[in-house]
């Protein structure tokens, strides 16, 4: 929906369905109810998540036309998409496979191109901008810092992934030339991705993406200035509030660093992480956080010590197993929790990072797209769960109250 500070939606990755028939049926049963609650008298945007199979299915003419007709009949539209999870995302063990296939593979390239072709056709005629969020190149621990085999290294994976992104960039340039639509690929740093935080993202953008792209496009006759403009337009950051909060990054610092580096933000993914303060009642809090140790998703932990240094864990169970009294003052846990709840009994959330990010955006807008992303409703402890559509509507209403 339109707000004074950009288009607001929620991401449909909360809804199951890895093929289009299943996912569309859930959208049909959910979105009208949600829209009636949060945007009854105005058009509502949808943040569409498509698994690879669903993207193939929706590319079929009959399916696409049926979806367009449904969007029109329900006064809805698509302006942003989630192209991070390629395969199964519900009722399966996802863990590190959320990155698979990664950007070193042709499968990821072809999936992303297919998604952009769909988005170019789905964007309303009066909208010129759309974006798709994607993985931060690959999962860090699939690669080695050093190896006798250079094909196993992080450097090789980063280089190859960057080169593959340029194949998608070619398609985005072609789409803009043919339709006037400006589409951007929004890279989403997250814990344990090759690009985990703002420093790593900016370093990659400056030390890998720009040099590789300048060389690539020089062969096509583009100047350095033209190439830098192309990158600024089409390769942007997906600012996931939860992910940056887990890394203890202050929103104002991240936004300032991106502006200084002349890197655009394609969208803000509005999300919240769990925060555990171990400076008091630690035993009770350790028991409380253990309820969130579940088998579907990775829940990385970054622990802050008393001296201000950090310790990282690849999943929550590993942090719990390594727990020692007095070792850490605080944990930030990569577990997307409902936005409108600040306290979870003895635990708290990084909700204040959302409030701060939105306040910064209102003062000086730095993106046109705002997308709520809480996908873990099905694996939350029972006492936190409420009916899904009601929860989504409540999240949208809460964010609208900040704007």
Summarize the helices and strands and which ones pair or pack.
Blueprint lengths: L1 E2 L2 E5 L9 H19 L5 E6 L2 H7 L2 H13 L2 E7 L23 H17 L6 E6 L19 H26 L2 E6 L10 H21 L5 H11 E6 H6 L4 H10 L4 E6 L1 E6 L4 H9 L10 E4 L5 E4 L2 H6 L8 E8 L5 E2 L2 E3 L1 H13 L5 E4 L15 H15 L1
Parallel strand pairs: 2-15, 3-4, 4-5, 5-6, 6-7, 7-8, 8-15
Antiparallel strand pairs: 1-2, 9-12, 9-14, 10-11, 10-12, 13-14
Helix pairs in contact: 1-13, 2-4, 4-5, 5-6, 6-7
Q: Gist?
A:
This protein is α/β, with parallel strands linked by helices. It is 43% helix and 19% strand.
Please provide a written account of the structure.
- It is a single chain.
- With 403 residues, the chain is α/β, with parallel strands linked by helices.
- The chain is 43% helix and 19% strand.
- The protein is built from 13 helices and 15 strands.
């Amino acid at each position: 929906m339109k707000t004074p500070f950009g288009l607001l939606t929620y991401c449909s990755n909360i809804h199951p369905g890895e093929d289009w028939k299943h996912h569309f049926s859930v959208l049909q049963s959910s979105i009208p109810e949600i829209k009636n609650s949060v945007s009854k008298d105005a058009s509502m945007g949808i943040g569409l998540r498509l698994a690879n199979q669903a993207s193939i299915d929706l590319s079929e003419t009959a399916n696409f036309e049926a979806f367009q007709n449904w969007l029109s009949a329900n006064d809805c539209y698509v302006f942003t998409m989630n192209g991070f999870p390629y395969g199964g995302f519900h009722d399966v063990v996802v863990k590190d496979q959320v990155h698979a296939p990664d950007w070193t593979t042709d499968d990821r390239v072809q999936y992303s191109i297919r998604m952009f072709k769909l988005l170019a056709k789905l964007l309303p005629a009066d909208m010129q901008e759309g974006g798709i969020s994607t993985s931060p190149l690959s999962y860090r621990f699939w690669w080695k810092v050093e190896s006798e085999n250079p094909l196993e290294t992080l450097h090789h994976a980063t280089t190859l992934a960057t080169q593959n992104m340029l194949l998608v960039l070619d398609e985005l340039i072609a789409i803009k030339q043919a339709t006037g639509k400006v589409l951007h690929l929004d890279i989403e740093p997250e814990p344990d991705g090759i690009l985990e935080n703002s420093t790593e993202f900016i370093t990659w953008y400056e030390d890998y993406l720009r040099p590789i792209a300048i060389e690539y496009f020089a062969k096509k006759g583009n100047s350095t200035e033209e190439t830098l403009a192309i990158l600024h337009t089409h390769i942007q950051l997906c600012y996931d509030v939860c992910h940056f909060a887990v890394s203890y990054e202050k929103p104002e610092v991240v936004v300032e660093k991106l502006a200084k580096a002349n890197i655009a933000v394609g969208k803000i993914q509005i999300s919240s992480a769990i925060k555990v303060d171990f400076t008091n009642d630690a035993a009770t809090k350790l028991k409380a956080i253990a309820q969130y140790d579940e088998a579907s998703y990775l829940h990385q932990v970054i622990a802050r010590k008393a001296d201000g240094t950090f310790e990282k864990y690849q999943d929550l169970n590993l942090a719990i197993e390594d727990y020692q009294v007095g070792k850490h003052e605080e944990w930030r846990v990569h577990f997307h929790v409902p936005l409108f709840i600040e306290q979870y009994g003895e635990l708290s959330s990084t909700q204040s990072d959302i409030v701060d990010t939105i306040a910064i955006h209102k003062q000086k807008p730095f993106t046109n797209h705002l997308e709520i992303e809480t996908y873990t409703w099905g694996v939350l402890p029972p006492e936190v769960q409420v009916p899904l559509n009601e929860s989504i509507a409540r999240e949208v209403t809460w964010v609208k109250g900040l704007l």
